[in-house]
Amino acid sequence: MVKVAVVVGSLRKGSYSKKLAENMAALLPEDFEAEFVDIGNLPLYNEDYDGNEPQEYLDFREQIKSSDAVMFVTPEYNRSVPGVLMNAIDVASRPYGHSVWDGKPALVASQSISNLSGFGANHHLRQSLVFLNMPVLQQPEVYIANSPELFDENDKIKSEDTVAFLQSAMDAFVDHVKKYV
Ligand code: FNR
Predict the structure, then answer these.
(1) How far is the CA of 81 from the centre of ligand 1 (A)?
(2) What is the CA(77)–ligand 1 centre distance, in A?
(3) The CATH number of the domain covering residues in 2-178
(4) Ligand 1 center to 98 CA (angstroms)
(5) Atom 17 of ligand 1 has which residue's CA nearest to it?
(6) Domain NADPH-dependent FMN reductase-like spans what residues (predicted)?
(7) What ipTM was assigned to the predicted interfaces of this complex?
(8) Which atom of ligand 1 approaches the CA of 75 most closely?
(9) What are the tens digits of pLDDT across the range 40-60?
(10) pTM
């Protein structure tokens, strides 16, 4: 079984990013499993913790380390990556030389309540993943606009075209991940 860690860049209970991530995870094939990873419990990263880690850091790093791939689904905050997601990225990138992100294939998806689709967050996140040596799926890029109109009352994506597009993205991600596992 190929394990995909799902990291959502919003802690909000009704998060559109979380709903989008759940819809995307449901499109994975049977030999892939998605594990949603909690990032809301991580204390703000402080270099003084290196070698004296809070248990939450150790648990989070282990969850990423034991995964074969990572799927990031995030909103955009102030034209960039939400602080809570950057914090999680920093936590798992340290101590220096022991980043658990290293080499993990990844997918980046962004969403927004506007028609801008979180483009800024998507690309700022991609930039960090380049530095972290994570091979990121290049195409198709996943930008989802106008999220409040996306879901039905059961939090399922209404548009068949959007589901077909996301299926093509997940299929490409699966092929991408298989090159590394
Ligand atoms: C936002 N939002 C937002 N939207 C956007 O398209 N570009 C942006 O730069 C921002 N900036 C921003 C900053 C902050 C602090 C908040 C709280 C919100 C709106 C954002 O798209 C909206 O709140 C989404 O619903 C957030 O995603 P979740 O929480 O639904 O996953």
Answers:
(1) 10
(2) 5
(3) 3.40.50.360
(4) 32
(5) 77
(6) 2-147
(7) 0.99
(8) 27
(9) 999 999 999 999 999 999 999
(10) 0.98
